[in-house]
Amino acid sequence: MKDSSVRIPRIGVMDSGMGGLSVLRELLALPYQVEFLYYGDLANSPYGEKSTSQILDLTRAVCHFFISKKVDAILLACNTATSAAALKLREELSVPIFGMEPAIKPALLAHEKEKIALLATAVTHREEKLQELKADLGAKERILHLNCDGLAHLVDQGDLQGARNLLQNILRIPKEEGVKALVLGCTHYVFLKNEIMDLYPEAILHDGNQGTVRHLANSLHLDRVSGRPTFELHFSSPEKPNGIRQFALQLLERGL
Ligand code: DGL
After folding, report:
1. Residue from 102, 97, 83 nearest 186 by CA
2. Given Cys at both, which of 65, 217, 220, 227 links 33, Cβ 3.0 to 4.6 Å?
3. pLDDT given at position 256
4. Which of 209, 174, 168 is nearest to 20 (CA)?
5. pLDDT tens for residues 12-64?
């Protein structure tokens, strides 16, 4: 019998745009009765080419929106926002803040003695969070940094051909160097797995989505509320709200 005294948890999931939907998709596969509120800050995307303080301000504003909706926890489903803002917002806000981490550790473990490549935004590459992770893992020499400026924006636009063209260029270096393990360090790129595999069939892809979802579910004890999750979608862009919603639903169901 269901315990009716258990409150249904409400969790805010944010990203600069559409990328966090790749995480929401996995959250919605959980057998738990949770209300997810998704916020894509499309009016300000991409975050990955902005300054740290701009990203902090934008992420903070989204967190305040979630707090006004009485969420129990917030997931920054964006590596860039996590790198630039998570530490500060955890100090400022009283709701638990979860974030993303590029799956460097599992990739290094799975490809012992090999180099791995990290595809991420300029902000994720340069922020201290990644430098600390690399130092902790003693892996400075084993990571090839691939700057993917522009790629997240093409995903937000649904421009698959443009993304493919840019990827062709980005993947040139790991292909030439024979680096097969690719870490998708931006939630947008998870929607490009088929294109990446098509352009580089020998590649082995790693992303942090499942690890994050597992960590969130365990930390918040979501298994106490068995059932089906629900979701609401919010976007900051005032343009074409119906088109954006349709595109977001397509990403959740079928991908890009
Ligand atoms: N989805 C975001 C991430 O995981 C970044 C995209 C952007 O540049 O806004 O890093």
Report:
1. 102
2. 227
3. 87
4. 209
5. 999 999 999 999 999 999 999 999 999 999 999 999 989 999 999 999 999 99
Spacing, Cα 227 to ligand 1 middle (Å): 31
Measured in residues, the chain has a length of: 256
152 lines ligand 1 (CB under 6 A): yes
8 Å CB contact between 89 and 118: no
Beta carbons of 204 and 111 less than 8 angstroms apart: yes
Count of C-beta atoms within a 10 Å radius of residue 124: 28
pTM for this predicted structure = 0.96
Kindly list the distances between the CA atom of residue 244 and the CA atoms of 24, 131, 162, 241, 254, in Å, as whole numbers in the listed order: 16, 35, 19, 5, 15
Confidence of residue 4 (pLDDT cuts 50, 70, 90): low
Q: How many CB atoms lie within 10 A of CB 80?
A: 33
Domains of the chain: residue spans and CATH? 10-100+210-253 (3.40.50.1860), 104-208 (3.40.50.1860)
Residue 82, token pair as written in the block: 């996590």
Indicate whether residue 79 lines ligand 1 (CB < 6 A): yes
Omega prior to 9 cis, within 30 of 0: no
Please give the pLDDT value at position 240.
Answer: 84
